[in-house]
Amino acid sequence: MSTTQEVLDAIFKNNECPLPSGETVKLHKVSVRTLKPVIDLISKVLEDLKGSGGATNLDIEGSPEVILKLISNHYDDVVALIPLLAGLTKEQVYDLDPADSIALINAIVLLNQDFFTKTVLPALGLAKAVRAQAAN
Questions:
Q1: What is the pLDDT of residues 78-131, one digit of tens each?
Q2: Residue 28 — φ and ψ, nearest 5°?
Q3: How far apart are CA 107 and CA 113, in angstroms?
Q4: Can you give the three-state secondary structure of the chain, one letter per residue?
Q5: Which residues pair with 25 in a beta bridge?
Q6: Cβ(118)–Cβ(131) under 8 Å?
Q7: CA distances from 117 to 16, 72, 103, 114, 135 (A)
Q8: Cβ distance 29 to 112 under 8 Å?
């Protein structure tokens, strides 16, 4: 079992994601090729959160119905994006264990967090709301 620091080192130093199953997947940062689908997905998710009362409360951990709705509404978009942001084919993504897919999505977001927080959110005008939520 990898420690948190080992996982973070793999993500940030090697652009790799160690999966719970023991496999390691190569990660890619957002590029011009992936920019539009990534921003489209983020916009859709944020719109869903806004409709669920999540625009001012970005902590959706205690809301299983919101999480299930997000998964249902955006499953196809996420499955289409993973091969662009990780070294997997679409068929390999479909065959992932759910725990591996969650770890992989988390690693992709971590690797690209500066892009999301310093570029996408300000562009969508949400940086202020995120900072206010983080302060609470």
A1: 999 999 999 899 999 999 999 899 889 888 888 888 877 787 667 767 666 666
A2: -125, 140
A3: 10
A4: CCCHHHHHHHHHHHCEEECCCCCEEEECCCCHHHHHHHHHHHHHHHHHHHHCCCCCCCCCCCCHHHHHHHHHHHHHHHHHHHHHHECCCHHHHHCCCHHHHHHHHHHHHHHCHHHHHHHHHHHCCCHHHHHHHHHC
A5: 17
A6: no
A7: 21, 25, 20, 5, 15
A8: yes
pTM of full prediction above 0.85: no
Q: 């967090």: which residue's tokens?
A: 113
Give the type of residue at 124. Answer: L
Both tokens assigned to 129? 């709301």
**Six-digit token string for 17:** 């994601």
Type of residue at 79: V
Structure tokens at 103: 């770890």
The residue written with tokens 């690797």 in the block is 111
